[in-house]
Specification:
Distance between the termini: 94 Å
Order of helices and strands: HHHHEEHEEEEHE
Structural class: alpha+beta
Oligomer: single chain
Strand order of the largest sheet: 3-4-6-5
Length: 326
Amino acid sequence: MQKNFILIIGIIMLVILCTPIHTLATNGDIELNLQEQIDLLYLLDQFYNNAWNKLLIVITILISLVAGVLPLSIEYFRRQKLQAAMNDLKDAKEQNKELKKYYEEQIKLVKESYSKSENMNNELRKEIKESIEEVKEKNNENEKINSELGNKMESLMDNVEELKINYSKAKQDLLLEYYIRMVDSLLEAYNNTSDDATKEAFQSEIIKFENLIDKIRAANKRPDYELQIKINNEVIGGNTVREFYKNVMEYLIEQEVKLEDIVPYKTGKIRYLISDKAVHQNGADFNAPLEIGPYFLETHKSKKTAKQDIIQFLEKLGTVKVEEVI
């Protein structure tokens, strides 16, 4: 755009300068010989060169001014904006101070009110205590009646406590029944799906509900949930999945049962129940590995899933008789 502008200015100046010369030549007022024409052309060339150089200088100065003024203007406006922001921040700090002062005053008022209320309560307690003492002093003859009333009150309180205990027990029983049903429903859904990710999600939920069941049973002083199966008519069990698997594997190794024919054994597309390495088929590490002899077992399972998987493993093994203990 700048080049076009400079070219237009040069053309205009050339037309202006050439017009009088052409006019003089055509009117015949001045007869120019060849040397004079050459000199005139030289002068004209010098004039254009000087004009062109001056024009470049002027344009350069203008560009320099613009290049210098524009950053300064931007910096000026930026500083103005920054100053406005600082002022806003300062105002916000002042508002926060005022708000903090207001809340401190409110807290102080609440404390004073609480202190006054506490004093009034203490005075009221003192008056009640004095009144009770006066009544006791004046009604010594009614001690028998008061004793009977006291006994009735104690009996009533005992009945209330018993009702509370029965209510709490009924509530715990309902929760226990609900959690057990949830475990059964989730286990059924677990058995009906073939997707390992979905199975993992169901299994986590089953473990969660089983932990709640254990807490309720422990609170009610009931025996812990036990995992038990019969292997060759001998009961093997444990209170946790890890303990249960440990006792089963130690029994099988002690009885010299050969397991290597079906190890590693999968319970899904990618998850192993038992393997010679603590790594699943997809390369993921066991979440809760249990090492027994040369084998690793995955114990990150719900109790019902763990019992179901070990029974299926032993049935596939085929060299031992396995029965579920309910």
